[in-house]
Every structure is written in C-alpha cells, then in structure tokens.
Amino acid sequence: ELQSKFELQSKLIDHPESFLETKVESLGIERYQNDFECDISTDQDLDLPVGSDLALPSVSAWVPSSRPQNLQPPVMTRGNSNAASRSALFGVARRAANLFRGGGRERTRDELKLGIAGFYDRSSKLWEDVWGEHMHHGFYVPENRTDHVQAQVDLIDQVLAWAKVDSCTKAVDVGCGIGGSSRHLARKYNCQTEGITLSPYQAGRGNELAEEQGLKGKCNFQVADALQMPFQDNSFDVVWSLESGEHMPDKVQFVSELFRVCEPGGRIIIVTWTHRDLDEGESLTKKEDKLLDKINRAYYLPRWCSGKDYVNLLEGFGAKDVQREDWSYIIAPFWKAVIRSSLNLKSIWGLLRSGFSTIRGAYAMLLMLRGYKNGLIKFDLLTCTKPPAVSKHGMPM
Questions:
Q1: CB 391: neighbour CB atoms within 10 A?
Q2: Most CB atoms closer than 10 Å: which of 35, 220, 281, 309?
C-alpha cells in the first residue's frame, strides 16, 4: 500500500496531466461544464470497494450551497481503511483532473472578485488546519528543508531583509489572507498594521487570531478592494503585497493604489507570480497561454504579466531604487510539499468538504510546478521607495 501511494505521488508530481487525464478517461467521467458554482450532482460517487463501511455523502453535498451543516468525517473500520483511502484519493484526483482541460472565456472583473472571495472563504480554514496562519510560499534554503511552517515565516523575514526594511511604524498588508504576515510585522517592528482581503472569512479570522495573540490593538483586518483601498493618501511607511498581485485585473490601478497609500520615502514591496520576460515584439506561445489559462481557471486569476512589466510600471510612477529578483528556485520545493500534504485521507476529506473549487485549487499546484520547470512561471520580488513628491494619483509632480 505504501509503495502504491508513493508511486501515485510521483506520477502526480512528475506527470500531472498524463496521469490524471488517463485516470479520468479510464473511469469515463464527464467534464464539469460550470467551473464556478460547479454543479456536480450528476457525477459518480467515489468508487468505494464493494462492502466498504466508508460512507460518504453524495457528491452534490460538496457543492457549498447545499453542503449539510452536520457533515462529519468518514468512519473507518479495520481492514478497509487502505482501500477506502486509495479510492477516495483516486476520486479526488479524478475530479481535480478536470482543471487540466482549461478553456472557457476570460472572466470579468466582477466575476473575478466574486470568485476570489468565494474561493478563499471555502479554502482558508483547510489551509490553516494543514499549514497554519501563513498562506504563502516558503523559503527553501537549503532546498531539502522539511520545517514547512517555519519556511513560510522565514520567507517574510528574508523578503524584508532583501528590501532593506529596518523599521516600520504603520504597514498595510494588501491581500492579507488570514493575517499571518501582518501579525508577524506587528511583532517584529512593534508597528500598527492594516490588512485587506476580498474574503469575509479571512478578514474575520484575521481579527480573531489578532485578539487570540494579544494583537487586537495593533492589527486590524477588513474586506476591501485593493484597487480602491479605503485609506487616506500617504498613510503607510511600508506597503506590503505578498502573493496578491497576480489576482489584480488592472495592474496599473493596482500599482497606483500602492503608491497612493504609501507615504513619501516609504517602502513598497510586491511579491508575486509572473510569467517569463518577453523580448520586444515577442508573445507567449500558445502552449504557454494554455497552461496559464488552466491555472487562471483554478485560482480566479486575470491575465499574467512579467516582472519586467512591473519594473516598467514602478518606474513610470516615479519610483526610486527599484529592485527586482527572481526567487522561483527558492520557493519551488513548496509546491511539492503542498501536493504531498494533500495526499492523505484527512486532507482529502477536508478538500471534499471545502468544495470543488478548493479541490481544483489544490491540484493546480501541479500546473504551477510544471510552469516553473518549463521556465514560464516566475516568483518575482519587486521593491522601491516612493519619491518625496507625488500627486494624489501616484504620478510624479
């Protein structure tokens, strides 16, 4: 059984499309036509062994709008746990395989906002249960480290050191998740922090954790749009965006808002997924576009841009001391760690309870890993300082 599980992990990680596509086709599973509120009530239940005592609810129960409140984890009986776990695992893989099919029109700005909020409302509790309060990649130096939670904390500290942030009075965390970065900044610098997210669950949980950790007066979290932040001009000396820029459908407006709320001389830090730099007149290949489109469907992302595009934007707004560095190789082991963490019965059950979009999001890590290996996906760090005099719209005067 262990050998079988390790073989499955290897196939998922090294050949995600070929393995999952083959598995889906062999089981004769139909595609899901609507990826947002995905009605999968007509899909087959998990293929449990005949006589199994593992009773799972119908697939329709996993749709968020109809999921029963008293849903409980499956009861395992001796002798069938391995077979049932394997069957459940294949069931998840079967459903997750549909994300690799991609396709469909590009989502509108309103659809992205609604989708992002719903995705993180459903998935954040599961992430916290498995990975803790930090909802971002880890710092893998050395690359074989296994203390994954500490690796996430180290990423924050290493980015701050790279950006030469020695002190902070007031910071804004743009796309704050459940507030892990904000609370870390508050403790590290004894500063005030404001966090914004589109997810009501995340904002509420962030405030709960702040109170639990004795930071209620220092950390505040609210639902807000990063493209229209509810803050006065020149409010923060550190503007922090860790893995949220990829969600922004209007990168110009995004950077404009970062500049607007940053005080003159303040530090702006953007850590985000990007695609490879393009030469003048060059475009991504059709194969690259197809891969990114599949990832976009899973994570509710708009079109991607390159790190060079961000540099041009920052310089266009008059930024000083612009720096950029690609840390893809530093965070890449995290993708495999997340994939492996999902391949156990507890995580599988959590995924099923969280709904299809969470399942698809978890296994989109396979596509992220493939994009990194192909040199398409980058993990870019960008930082700059706001010049002493800029207009209210972020443009130099």
A1: 12
A2: 35
